[in-house]
Amino acid sequence: MKKYQVIDVFTPSTQAIQTFVERENKINSHLVDALKTPGKQIVLYGHTKCGKSTLILNKLQQLKKKAFTTRCSEGMTYESVILDGFDQLGGIYDETIAKTRGFKIAPEVSISYSDIKAEFKLGEYARDTQKTGRQILPPQLTPRRLGEFFGASKSCWILEDFHKIKGTDKSKTSDLMKIFADMSGNYPELKIIALGAVGTARQVVQYNQEMEDRVTEIFIPYMKDDEIEQIIIGGEKLLNIKFSSDAKKRIIKYSCGLPAVCHQLCLNACYIRRVDNTTKNITGMNEEDLDNAITKFVDEKSDTLKKQFDKSIKVPNYTPVNIPKQILTVCLTINKDEFPVDEIFRRLKERKIKKNDIEKTLNELCTVDRSEILVYDENSNLYRFNNLFLKAYAQLRLHETEDVKPTTSRKDEQIVQKLLEIIDKDINDEESDEDSFIEEI
């Protein structure tokens, strides 16, 4: 039996390869067609941790296409995006590596790349710290020249977390797509693949109307329960482990369609059972193991949960009514896993909050600007919490001022109590009667 390392099987923070699960045929065919079409730029968008990066990297690998990734961060400038893309190509344009990998790049292109890189080494174009603090690029490093470098190496360029680039820098970065699309006649493999949060597809196209027919927008939804289950089954086979039926069902439930959460819970369970690689004999994983895995997950994520919740309800100090907080309170008091829009409106109407303000805030609560704390299903017209762990945290933070009670059943009631007890350790100074609340569960 071939041995696999557990960290290569359950990968909450990196691309899943061994346990990669194909998405539904419509998404796969749409993406593959776009990758094969010269000049077609791609925008993949969806909620955080829904599997966008894993999907595109596996598809590129299946099609034997090369790609380099720029991971955008908050406040990243247009110049730093260009420079990162330029730096990513360094290995290809190294003569020894190029020969080893069999790349055939025109000598003049390689020389041009080397000349520009040499200018950076001299430090002449490091940073304009006295004026704007922005990166200064050599005049030769234009977007078209960068496209030539990518095109000559037959590589795609992935811009991960595109939505984190703001303002005019995002507008300039979006214009790169048009430049790359225009160059597809000479470089058919050349394309930008932008990965972003829900709503970011429109942000790309709206900056340049000429791109509407040259950009494929693909929404990557949460994984379905059977897709999450395939991650678990795949890991079981590779590691020779076996989750009990009830444990598996609860992993699926707590994952909320997020593959990253499923990977983390499975990885934690393996760590708890000291499973580092494929076992000689089948190792069983029961509900107690899962309880401990969830406890470990929340213990490690408690600070993150606090930041996400605070971000979701943050409003200016002068705001008379905290509408996000009011909406979340109502969502919790409805006492259902999913809640209809009309019910939210009805309950908030009593608090004299305008319907337009409610609709606007509900939409915001489904975006990264408010931690994507809620998810909206257009088919059912229902909302739900994006993450059951974040929901448990919200219950603890909101119970003091409102009649908010956990919405759990049977086994889940016990685990939510554990979650609340762990989370409570980090916010003791903010909550005065948490012990009585936990006793109510």
Structure, described:
By secondary structure, the protein is of the alpha/beta class. The protein has 3 domains: 22-219, Rossmann fold (3-Layer(aba) Sandwich); 225-301, Helicase, Ruva Protein, domain 3; 304-440, Arc Repressor Mutant, subunit A (Orthogonal Bundle). Helix content is 50%, strand content 10%. It is built from 19 helices and 10 strands. The chain has helices spanning 6-9, 25-36, 52-62, 78-88, 95-101, 107-121, 143-152, 167-182, 200-205, 225-239, 245-255, 259-272, 287-313, 323-333, 341-349, 355-364, 388-398, 411-424, 434-440; strands spanning 41-45, 66-71, 155-160, 192-196, 215-219, 241-243, 283-285, 338-340, 374-377, 382-385. The strands form 3 sheets. Strands 2-3-4-1-5 form a 5-stranded parallel sheet, with helices on both faces. A 3-stranded antiparallel sheet has the order 8-10-9. A two-stranded parallel sheet has the order 6-7. α11 (245-255) packs across α12 and α14 crosses α17 (388-398). The model is unreliable at 406-410 and 425-441 (pLDDT under 50).
Characteristic key phrases:
441 residues; alpha/beta; Rossmann fold; Helicase, Ruva Protein, domain 3; Arc Repressor Mutant, subunit A; 3 domains; 3-stranded antiparallel beta sheet; 19 helices; disordered C terminus
